[in-house]
Design goal:
The protein is α/β, with parallel strands linked by helices and 461 residues long. It is 46% helix and 11% strand.
Length: 461
């Protein structure tokens, strides 16, 4: 019956929300069904009209009960997105396992579509359809009143170092930590051209030029749909490391007005990146490729290298692909810094079944470690729980992690959680700006606009 109810809910949602979803980029979304109670039969003294109305109400409520299950069952909605690694099957396996262990709770998946997930959830919020549990909650947590406070018994499940607060309140839980970004390379091309993994910025530039001189494409990136795939990988590898090497408290200084995006370091990093584009180091058709398409083109040999996160390593290991290696992208200033971030889940303040929502979180992160392990392993993620969860790693993932050994790990600027988090919407703005720079826009003018947009978003919180 539960599976039939889900199908009905999906069909109803498709009919009722087609216009709304089309405006958000398309895709399927499941929404919360309403639990109805069957009315008692009309008394003999009622008029025919009243009796007919009661019968009609009874029929409607019975239909609603069919959609939501037997009386007493609780439904929560779960907002997610899907990737090449974290697939629909991963989420459904998580949901099915939880529902089997908690038959009184029904979980409906809400799928975010498009390339700007924060904007998608904001649209859901404004329409009154915001999910009860949301992944990547850090993108909205800076907005007041979106997420409810997390009970202490739930917070106690996680590493203290991964927890954060917003205005003194704990409103999210850390779902995983992840390392970013390194450079994947085609071993055959490196062997053919007798190239070694570069250790300095100059060596990296020499590798790019050698590959180009051989008539091959040095680097791959994406550009359409997944706009982050154009500039974010390079920016995290070089921009974050350069800024945090010079300004360890950059996020705090930015919020307090003691620093700006428009500084010599930012402009220098982005100017060098634009020079790489102008020299033809990137695949000419990159802007017409989604992230998934760019990744596939890289694996097909269209380009020799691709700067990407640990999820690429997990994907290559999952395919048992031994044709690729990975090295840390040399920083411009020679500092040994690698970037990581934690991602967070949150429970909506408007959730009517908060106990059920937090029970779902406790199940995923504590009560069933196999579920959590499957989630982590699918994307090369690492646990944030006090009961550490590990899994067998393939050779590319192992090499990726080994590359970070001895390096200072810093938190990604745009994903820093807590009091000094950048305002919601800034990441999307920067991603679009990276594309402008990739296409030849003036670097300094773009970065000056970062400061204007940052302040606008900060004031709007």
């Amino acid at each position: 019956m539960k599976r039939r109810r889900k199908i009905i809910a999906i069909l109803l949602t498709a009919c009722m929300s087609a216009t709304f979803i089309a405006g958000c980029g398309g895709g399927k979304t499941q929404t919360n069904a309403t639990t109805g109670e069957t009315k008692e039969a009309a008394t003999a003294g009622e008029t025919k009209e009243t009796s007919a109305a009661a019968d009609e109400t009874k029929a409607a409520d019975t239909a609603a009960a069919d959609d939501t299950g037997s009386e007493g069952q609780t439904t929560i909605t779960f907002g997610v997105f899907e990737t090449d690694n974290i697939t629909a099957e991963i989420w459904q396996g998580m949901i099915d396992s939880f529902e089997a262990a908690n038959p009184e709770i029904n979980v409906e998946k809400v799928l975010a579509t498009g390339d700007d997930r924060a904007s998608f959830w904001k649209t859901m919020l404004s329409s009154g359809n915001f999910p009860d549990v949301v992944i990547e909650a850090e993108q909205l947590a800076t907005m007041e009143g979106i997420f409810t406070e997390v009970p202490q018994d739930v917070l106690d499940l996680f590493e203290e170092s991964a927890l954060c607060t917003y205005n003194g309140k704990s409103i999210t839980v850390p779902s995983f930590k992840q390392y970013k970004m390194q450079c994947y390379y085609n071993k055959a091309v490196f062997n053919e051209l007798k190239l070694e993994e570069p250790k300095t910025w100059d060596e990296f530039m020499n590798v790019c030029q050698t590959i180009k001189d051989a008539g091959k494409v040095p680097l791959m990136c994406g550009g359409t749909g997944d706009i982050w795939a154009t500039g974010e990988p390079f920016w995290i590898a070089e921009g974050d490391t350069a800024l945090l090497s010079k300004y360890p408290n950059f996020n705090q200084e930015l919020k307090e007005g003691k620093n700006t995006w428009n500084n010599e370091t930012t402009v220098d990093v982005l100017t060098k990146w634009q020079d790489m584009v102008n020299k033809g180091y990137y695949y000419e058709g990159a802007m017409s490729l989604s992230y998934s398409q760019a990744s596939e083109e890289f694996k097909k040999g269209t380009a020799a290298m691709m700067v990407d996160g640990s999820w690429q390593a997990a994907g290559l290991d999952g395919e048992k692909n031994e044709d690729f290696g990975v090295f840390s992208v040399p920083t411009m200033d020679g500092s040994e810094i690698c970037v990581a971030d934690c991602s967070y889940w949150g429970v909506s303040e408007t959730c009517e079944n908060k106990d059920a929502a937090f029970q779902f979180i406790k199940y995923v992160f504590d009560e069933n470690q196999e579920v959590y392990k499957t989630y982590l392993q699918s994307d090369g993620l690492y646990s944030t729980t006090k009961k550490a969860v590990s899994y067998e790693q393939g050779p590319v993932t192992t090499k990726f992690l080994d590359n970070t050994s001895g390096w200072n790990t810093v938190q990604e600027i745009i994903k820093l959680p807590g009091e000094f988090a950048v305002p919601s919407g800034m990441q999307s703005y920067m991603d679009k700006s990276f594309q402008n720079i990739f296409n030849g826009a003036d670097v300094k003018a773009e970065v000056e606009n970062w400061d204007v947009e940052y302040q606008r978003l900060l004031d709007a919180q």
